[in-house]
Design goal:
seven-stranded mixed β-sheet; 14 strands; Metallo-beta-lactamase, Chain A; binds D-malate; alpha/beta; 307 residues; binds manganese (II) ion; binds zinc ion; 11 helices; Metallo-B-lactamas; single chain
Length: 307
């Protein structure tokens, strides 16, 4: 399977339009140590022609323009055959509005996400005027925290969605009281190569279930939102902690870096969904050096993997 990182940043992107934190300031000045990144999304394909987007970011138009694999080959068209949503957050779903000219469009998501996108952020009813989004249910619900499924245009790919304990969006009735299906992680196996990818940009809590899939994968692409849980407060740019937003910080006891150090030594470890305040976005920082010493990579826009 082929994987293209379309966007490696968390909500707001890097630099964020209204932020002048040190990272955003330097990125805006064109510093070569602060590479800009768009909001979180990856694309998957088996044949290099038909693609699944995992998340549709508000930056999708720019992402598609810089990704020849996803350009139309006919008068009107696209390699994008469908979109899978890991949650109903703005940074992962707003790009569906920009894909309206391609409706009807298949969208895989859980009942909770479908519900939020039919009410609090009603993309499903809105886009009916353009031909609609065809909901393909991923049945993560109470008492069902793992679901295996396949996607017709991804032959030989076995997909498993597993529940993540994170948070629902602010416009969800389940904000602060999430239930199974608000956030998912994906375990993706290519049956031809036997290789697997675990994609979990919203891994807020290292549950045994999530850790099982991280341990099984050849490549993990996981939540790199914040370096410290209170980083946004410390910089004076926000009031929420990572924990409140449903993200596990990288540094410290029980942090993401420590979890990643427990994986088999052959596992390729990649961070994605990185917030603009995170010091790892400054290549010269101590945090970036710590990652490098630990063999942990930081995803960037345009990064490609073959598995
Ligand atoms: C999140 O991942 O917590 C959200 O995307 C934050 C946001 O975009 O407001
Ligand atoms: Mn997000
Ligand atoms: Zn910033």
């Amino acid at each position: 399977m082929q994987v293209i990182v379309l966007g490696a940043a968390a909500g707001g992107g890097f630099p964020q339009w209204n932020c002048n934190c040190p990272n955003c300031f330097h990125a805006r000045q064109g510093s070569s140590d602060h590479q800009p990144r768009t909001q979180s999304s990856i694309a998957l394909s088996v044949d290099g022609k038909r693609w699944l987007l995992c998340n549709a970011s508000p930056d999708i138009r720019a992402q598609l323009n810089t990704t020849p694999e996803l350009w139309p080959n006919e008068l009107r068209g696209s390699g994008i055959r469908g979109v899978l949503l890991v949650d109903a957050q703005i940074d992962h779903v707003t790009g569906l509005l920009s894909l309206r000219e391609g409706c009807p469009l298949d969208v895989w998501c859980t009942p909770n996400v479908h519900n939020d996108l039919s009410t609090g952020f009603p993309l499903f009813p809105m886009l009916e005027y353009w031909g609609g989004l065809c909901w393909q249910p991923v049945g993560l619900e109470d008492h069902q925290d793992v679901v295996e499924f396949s996607i017709p245009f991804l032959p030989d790919i076995a997909l498993t969605a597993f529940a993540l304990h994170s948070n629902a969006p602010p416009y969800s009735p389940r904000r602060g009281a999430t239930s199974c299906g608000d956030n998912l992680g994906l375990y993706i196996v290519d049956r031809r190569s036997g290789k697997s990818l675990c994609y979990a940009p919203g891994l807020g809590n290292p549950t045994p279930l999530a850790m099982r899939f991280l341990h099984a994968a050849d490549v993990v692409m996981v939540d790199g939102t914040l370096w410290e849980d209170d980083e946004m407060q410390a910089l004076g740019v926000g009031t929420s902690t990572g924990h409140q937003m449903g993200h596990l910080a990288l540094n410290g006891n029980g942090g993401m870096c420590e979890l990643l150090s427990d994986l088999p030594s052959s596992t390729r470890r990649i961070l994605i969904h990185i917030n603009n305040t995170n010091p790892i976005l400054d290549r010269t920082s101590e945090a970036a050096k710590t990652l490098q010493d630990a063999g942990i990579e930081t995803a960037y826009d345009g990064m490609q993997l073959t598995l």
